[in-house]
């Protein structure tokens, strides 16, 4: 199975400051069709998960442009350019390239 | 508007069976790939199963042989038949449309509790 390793697991941030979450996969996530199926999800407290980013860097509809995804191969990053209070929650990376699909452990973002 | 409404969760004894349903509206289940993803209390997300439009199915090793994903095209509904339930199957089960591509929608989830 592809192991997804996120860091850090806890991220205290100051409002208005940038934040960055790393996600590393144990194998390349490049699929045979040339796409890299790496997603990022946000789960606010008590809410259903919501996808933010698909295929490494594509923002979902309605996602603020302060969220961005980057990376390639086995190394990926989610960046928040300026953290807002509504960004508090747990963030997960997920690979959909190889079966079984696997998630990272989650990174808890909280305000300092 | 796309909606996914799960039902069928509840309290069940170890070894028992449950069938989860996911009623979809705003799109056609049979022309999309659908998945079940679960989240144990206080834990992270775990992919459970996927059903492709062509009928191919995939399962996590932890549920293979015990769970079956299916759909009823006439009812536009996705199912998850869960047999031989164990305590570690306790989780909120989410019905999900897409994940890899442009579209991705989640239901509100249904809680399954396996306990004696």
Structural write-up:
The complex is a heterodimer of chains A (112) and B (116). Chain A is mainly β. Chain A has no helices and 11 strands. With 116 residues, chain B is an all-beta fold. Helix content of chain B is 0%, strand content 50%. Chain B has strands at residues 3-7, 10-12, 18-25, 34-39, 45-51, 57-59, 67-72, 77-82, 91-97, 105-106, 110-114. The interface between A and B is medium-sized, with 26 and 22 residues.
Q: Which helices and strands appear, and what pairs or packs with what?
A:
The complex is a heterodimer of chains A (112) and B (116).
Chain A: E1 4-7, E2 10-13, E3 19-25, E4 38-43, E5 50-54, E6 58-59, E7 67-72, E8 75-80, E9 89-95, E10 102-103, E11 107-111
Parallel strand pairs in A: 2-11
Antiparallel strand pairs in A: 1-3, 3-8, 4-5, 4-9, 5-6, 7-8, 9-10, 9-11
Chain B: E1 3-7, E2 10-12, E3 18-25, E4 34-39, E5 45-51, E6 57-59, E7 67-72, E8 77-82, E9 91-97, E10 105-106, E11 110-114
Parallel strand pairs in B: 2-11
Antiparallel strand pairs in B: 1-3, 3-8, 4-5, 4-9, 5-6, 7-8, 9-10, 9-11
């Amino acid at each position: 199975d592809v192991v997804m390793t996120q860091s850090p697991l806890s991220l205290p941030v100051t409002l208005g400051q940038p934040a960055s979450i790393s996600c590393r996969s144990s194998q390349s996530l490049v699929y045979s069709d040339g796409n890299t199926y790496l997603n990022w999800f946000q789960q606010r407290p008590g809410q259903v998960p919501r996808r933010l980013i698909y295929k490494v860097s594509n923002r979902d509809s309605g996602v603020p442009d302060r969220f961005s995804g980057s990376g390639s191969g086995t190394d990926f990053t989610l960046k928040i350019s300026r953290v807002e209070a509504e960004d508090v929650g747990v963030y997960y990376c997920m690979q959909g390239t190889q079966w079984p699909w696997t998630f990272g452990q989650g990174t808890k973002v909280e305000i300092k | 508007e796309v909606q996914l409404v799960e039902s069928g969760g509840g309290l069940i004894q170890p070894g028992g069976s449950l069938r989860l349903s996911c009623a979809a509206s705003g799109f056609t289940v049979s022309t999309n790939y659908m998945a079940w993803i679960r989240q144990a209390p206080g834990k992270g997300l775990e992919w459970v199963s996927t059903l492709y439009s062509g009928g191919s199915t995939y399962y996590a090793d932890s549920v293979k042989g015990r769970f079956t994903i299916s759909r009823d095209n006439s009812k536009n509904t996705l199912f998850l038949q869960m047999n031989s339930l164990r305590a570690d199957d306790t989780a909120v089960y989410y019905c999900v449309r897409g994940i890899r591509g442009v579209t991705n929608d989640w239901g509100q989830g249904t809680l399954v509790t396996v306990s004696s």
